[in-house]
């Protein structure tokens, strides 16, 4: 009765499955592995140069087991002229932000009190709670108004600076990419790394196995956590099978020599074989 279940035996070589998913670090890692495009269980392969990386990347990207393929070339946007024209058009419409006027003279505390009082009166009918809060702020000490100003609008200058930066982009080329980014994706001898992300739950061994086999069929010289886990599992499982088979043959040979009787050998090996199957 146990024999058919031998066909269902699997060896789980994933080290993360030995850890408790109740701990915060492991739970976070598992959440990342299940997020499409964000999993750390990626495969990497090296191409001789950037053009070869583009060609190989296109071959791998069409595989149904692959979610995304990335290389250094993906950091250079396509259709830059069209996109830059749209950004320049937006910048022209927001010229007041991109080319701001000289800063106005800071308001005095008396002017702030007058503005708060005036605004509270205007909002009294439609927004009584907000009007009440503004009235209390107008009656509060000056330092409270300074603190409120910092909370409400203190970050606006920084936001406007960022907006001006966003609205004045420059064309991006491989040469203009940051040096540390290029070091992550290219070697000194010109080889380029391609990163391949699996589709589906990357914490599922079956998903990782299909993903690894599909990518290796296109690019045999790959590396990464999925390759290590899947291939380590295969090596260990194969070692168990080989060791168990050799041990059974050796025991059978020794018993045959010692007992010199097939029936006695069967009585000795029988319980061992049955116990193994049941286990």
Task: Name some characteristics of this structure.
four-stranded antiparallel sheet, 279 residues, alpha+beta
Mean pLDDT, all residues: 88
How widely separated are the two ends?
Answer: 12 Å
Percent helix: 55-70%
Unreliable spans are none
The Rg value, from CA coordinates, equals 34 Å
H and E order: HEHEHHHHHHHEHEHH
SS summary, helix count: 12
Structural class: alpha+beta
Number of DSSP E strands? 4
What is the topology, as strand order, of the major beta sheet?
2-3-1-4
Label the overall shape: elongated
Q: Describe the main β-sheet briefly.
A: 4 strands, antiparallel
Strand content: 5-15%
Describe the 3D structure.
The protein has helices spanning 24-34, 50-61, 80-93, 95-98, 109-123, 128-139, 142-153, 156-166, 179-185, 205-218, 225-259, 262-278; strands spanning 43-47, 66-70, 192-198, 222-224. With 279 residues, the protein is α+β, with helices and mostly antiparallel strands. A four-stranded antiparallel β-sheet has the order 2-3-1-4. The model has no long low-confidence stretch (mean pLDDT 88).
């Amino acid at each position: 009765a146990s024999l058919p279940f031998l066909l269902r035996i699997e060896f789980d070589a994933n080290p993360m499955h030995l850890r408790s998913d109740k701990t915060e670090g492991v739970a976070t890692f598992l959440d990342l592995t299940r997020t499409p495009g964000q999993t750390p269980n990626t495969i990497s392969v090296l191409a001789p140069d950037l053009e070869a990386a583009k060609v190989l990347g296109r071959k791998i990207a069409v595989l149904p087991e692959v979610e995304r393929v990335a290389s250094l070339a993906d950091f250079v946007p396509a259709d830059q002229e069209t996109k830059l024209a749209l950004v320049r058009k937006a910048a022209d419409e927001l010229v007041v932000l991109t080319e701001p006027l000289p800063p106005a003279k800071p308001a005095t505390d008396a002017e702030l009190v007058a503005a708060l009082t005036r605004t509270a009166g205007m909002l009294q009918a439609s927004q009584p709670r907000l009007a009440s809060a503004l009235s209390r702020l107008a009656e509060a000490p000056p330092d409270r108004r300074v603190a409120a100003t910092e909370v409400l609008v203190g970050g606006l200058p920084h936001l406007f600076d960022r907006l001006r930066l966003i609205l004045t982009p420059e064309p991006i080329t491989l040469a203009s990419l940051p040096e540390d980014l290029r070091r992550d994706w290219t070697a000194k001898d010109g080889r380029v790394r391609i990163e391949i992300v699996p589709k589906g739950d990357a914490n599922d061994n079956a998903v990782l196995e299909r993903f690894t086999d599909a990518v290796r069929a296109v690019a045999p010289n790959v590396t990464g956590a999925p390759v290590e886990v899947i291939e380590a599992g295969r090596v260990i499982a194969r070692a168990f099978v080989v060791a168990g088979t050799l041990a059974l043959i050796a025991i059978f040979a020794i018993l045959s020599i010692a007992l010199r009787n097939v029936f006695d050998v069967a009585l000795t090996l029988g319980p061992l074989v049955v116990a193994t199957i049941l286990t």
